[in-house]
Amino acid sequence: MIVIYYLFYAFVWLISFLPLQVLYLFSYGIYGLSYYVVRYRRKVVRQNLLNSFPEKSLEEIVKIEKGYYLHFADVAVETIKLMHISDDEIARRMVFTNPEVINQFCDNGKSAVLLLGHYGNWEWIPSLYLNYDGLIGGELYRPLKNKFFDGFFLKLRSRFGTVNIPKNDALRTIVGYRRENKVFALGFIADQTPSKNNLHYWHTFLNQDTPFLTGPERIARSGGYAVIYFDVKKLSRGYYSCDMIVLTDDAKKTAENEITDKYVELFEQTIRRNPSYWLWSHKRWKHKRVEQA
Questions:
Q1: Parallel, antiparallel or unpaired: strands 163-166 and 112-116
Q2: Were 188 and a residue from 216, 243, 244, 252 both cysteine, which residue would form a disulfide, CB within 3.0 to 4.6 Å?
Q3: pLDDT (tens digit, 9 = 90+) per residue, 145-182?
């Protein structure tokens, strides 16, 4: 396994020097292999799309489906490019349209919880922290079972000074920041499927009864943090923008589940704007409400 990992790392390290325009040639190959040959989770993707968009024709569904597989391949090569992409290039390709939103909280010593999903290229979002001195910019993540590849992705995700916090260490880390009066902005990819032990809150999402994690909201309310939704758009191949939408400047003032409800509503709007850019191969609806009992 160690040999395989180092061979993989060496290959990725070398090809990541290539311009993105060249890497997108690999993307076409990944698309063809995953969609037509391996048929990676084709049944899962098709069923997710049919259930989410019952109003669409099969022709429309197939178009979204193919667009998704090509986009997924693009995200793969764009993630590889993180190894060597320059600060200037990532800033041109991942544009935050209203960075003053983060500024106003940081300048006032206010920490923030950032909510986003697996839409567009979520691996490029940490480039946001390039622009903020003195701010602890971080994200929560689920460690991979393979320690070698877990380390590989942590290396990529730390390129721009991002602190990566294992989800089980979230509360301890945040409490530590509070005690030291440190200002932080922590990103939560909040569209992940809860485990069976965390099927506590359900919401209609894309025409389906869907469980959502409420941990980000609980953390925000406990500390009275600001909560910001990241509305991501894919402008063209390799170019994204992100609008920051403030859900609240003090989560303590919100009702229970209010933040989660707002997130679900806004995130569905993001997906419906161009469905091909969400992670449809994820088994998002594997749990049913009856499992709550």
A1: unpaired
A2: 216
A3: 888 888 888 888 888 888 999 988 988 999 999 999 99
Pick the residue with more confidence: 192 or 3?
192
**CB count in 10 Å sphere of residue 12:** 15
Which tens digit of pLDDT belongs to each residue from 225-237? Answer: 999 999 999 999 9
Please report which helix (H) or strand (E) contains residue 262, including its range.
helix 258-273
**Which tokens sit at 233?**
């758009």
Which tokens sit at 85?
A: 């992409």
Count of all residues that appear for the chain in the document: 293
The DSSP letter of residue 255 is: P
pTM above 0.90, yes or no: yes
Range 210-216, long-range pairs (CB < 8 A, 24+ positions): 210/264, 210/284, 210/285, 211/287, 211/289, 212/260, 212/263, 212/264, 214/257, 214/260, 215/170, 215/188, 216/113, 216/115, 216/188, 216/190, 216/259, 216/260
Q: What are phi and psi of 144, to 5 degrees?
A: -75, 150
- Between CA 106 and CA 111 the distance in angstroms is 7
Q: Which residues lie below 8 Å from residue 47, measured CB to CB, with a gap of 6+?
A: none
Looking at the DSSP bridge assignments, the partners of residue 202 are 211
| Euclidean distance between CA atoms 26 and 76, whole angstroms | 10
Q: Determine the angle formed by the axes of helices 58-81 and 42-52, rounding to 10 degrees.
A: 120
Contact criterion met (CB below 8 Å) for 259 and 227: yes
